[in-house]
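Example 4.3 (complexes with small molecules)
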Amino acid sequence: MKTFLELVQSRQSDRAYSDKPVEPDKLERILEAARVAPSACNAQPWKIIVVSDAEKRMQVADATANKLLAMNHFTKRAPLQLVILEENANFTSTVGGWATNKHYPHIDLGIVAAHISLAAADEGLGSCIIGWCDEKKIQKVLKIPKNKRVMLVILLGYSAQALREKKRKSIDEIVSYDQY
Ligand SMILES: Cc1cc2nc3c(=O)[nH]c(=O)nc-3n(C[C@H](O)[C@H](O)[C@H](O)COP(=O)(O)O)c2cc1C
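Answer. The structure with flavin mononucleotide bound is encoded below.
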């Protein structure tokens, strides 16, 4: 069994997938990992739409790609998509956000995305968090009310890519002790 650090290091953004479908019990555990994610004032300001229907999946994939900018040309290959919507936060999270000039739901959704992608890695699955998307197109395809923001699309599937070495800043660049 992997240690947590080994699990974190084994997660990467996968941009090629095999045709093998994701088993329902694996998806269920990934969604449970999302469900228990922390959020400011426990507001849980999210909804997750699982897109498995082939036609809808292609339409959502199209809405994440941009030919001109050569963005996200690979998204049709993933057998499953989790579309992450921002829901209204509760009163305390909203008031706390006003007081501190922070939009907590964006932070909350990032944490959910981390739970999902790490849970996927734990299940031996690949994933890719996609932030670039045409929200209006996705709202239309999935019948999402216009006032609900589509913040992320997370691709899931069996990766067809080898594990890459991480390109990251050094610890010294990102951590300091007791002062800036
Ligand atoms: C909020 C967010 C949005 C992202 N959007 C995209 C995207 O639209 N397309 C893409 O290919 N990767 C996207 N990524 C993946 C990042 O490019 C990737 O996490 C980063 O380069 C580090 O590589 P790694 O995930 O393989 O370790 C996104 C990641 C995050 C956290």
